[in-house]
């Protein structure tokens, strides 16, 4: 599986997962950190709290069985 991360300027970071590998909370969190590093290398700043809040928001979606999205 190919995981791609983009912003308004284009591709920021990508990773190719091993066959059968799934995206779970641990991998997603690690990817967010690597995306943050990629943004820094590109001289771009992540949105003030965007990268830091993504994991928390993603966990809220899981914890509420998707109900978070309807708010």
Mean pLDDT: 81
| Gross geometry | globular
Strand % is 15-25%
Oligomer: single chain
Q: Helical residue percent? A: 40-55%
Biggest β-sheet: strands ordered side by side in the sheet:
1-2
Number of domains: 1
Through-space gap between termini: 30 Å
Query: For the CA atoms, what is the radius of gyration?
Result: 13 Å
Structural class: alpha+beta
Low-confidence stretches: none
SSE string: EEHH
- Strand elements, count: 2
Biggest sheet architecture:
2 strands, antiparallel
Instruction: Count helical runs.
Output: 2
InterPro entries: RNaseH_sf, Transposase_1
GO molecular function: nucleic acid binding
Structure report:
The chain is built from 2 helices and 2 strands, in the order E-E-H-H. The protein has helices at residues 25-41, 50-63, and strands at residues 2-7, 10-16. It has one domain. The N and C termini lie far apart (30 Å). A hairpin with a 2-residue loop joins strand 1 and strand 2 (10-16). 44% of the residues lie in helices and 18% in strands. The mean pLDDT is 81. A two-stranded antiparallel sheet has the order 1-2. It has 71 residues and is α+β, with helices and mostly antiparallel strands. Helix 1 runs antiparallel to helix 2. GO terms for molecular function: nucleic acid binding. InterPro entries: RNaseH_sf, Transposase_1.
């Amino acid at each position: 599986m190919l995981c791609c991360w983009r912003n308004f300027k284009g591709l920021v970071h990508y990773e190719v997962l091993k066959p059968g590998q799934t995206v779970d909370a641990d991998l997603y969190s690690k990817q967010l950190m690597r995306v943050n590093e990629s943004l820094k290398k590109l001289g771009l700043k992540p949105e003030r709290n965007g990268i830091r809040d993504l994991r928390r928001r993603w966990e809220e979606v899981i914890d509420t069985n998707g109900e978070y999205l309807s708010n």
